[in-house]
# Entry
Amino acid sequence: MLTIGQLAAHAGVTVRAVRHYHRIGLLPEPDRDRSGYRTYNADAVVRLIRIHVLAGAGVPLARVQELLEASPEEFAAAVQEIDKKLRAEVRRLQATRERLARLSAGEHLALPDSVLGYLDRLRGLGVEERYLDLERDAWIIIAAQAPDDVDQIIAKKHEELDDPEMVRLYGLVSQAIDWDPDDPRIVEVVDIFERLFIRAVEAGELDNDPFDDPLAELLDATTANSSPVARRIIALLEERGWKGWTRIERVPAERLGR
# Structure
């Protein structure tokens, strides 16, 4: 006859595990000797080994009892089912590992290569990192909500960066985070924006964004909430008849009270 410690040693488990299997009914409680100690026989060793092997193979403890009592055919079918679920879990875990590995690359976690290349180009133009953080967050939203359009949008953004006035605009707005909302340089920013908007109207490009209304509204709100300077720029543009940020609209003069 075996003590609980000897049983655990033969099966390669801990005494604590044996007691747990008793509590959940996987391992029947044995007889006790005159001193009140549990005593086990070879059958208990075999059953405990089978429990341990099944649990170690990933079989949920809730199903171990079923497999212990199954016929060979039922056992084989159940094992195949469990294996299918385990393979699906392995694929999920592998995907999680790949995402974790990408964390070390920072922006690569949520942004396609086209956006990363564009942000790198802005860095090369001297745009400050604090502004790039805001730009990156907006692109994360766009990439998640309009993944099929982001590469085309980025291609257009690269074309715009060939314009010295756009480069000048980026240089100003990347510094504007620290400005006072009444800083006179804001007027220059608004002037450049307006010239670019007028050019877009003349080229028929103002209404060509691929965003649906909720996405455009979310991006506009994100910009407006980014800083007091951003809100001041938006307000001045509205005074000049330009509404919106992501989707620019020309407001007729009569609606402005002119």
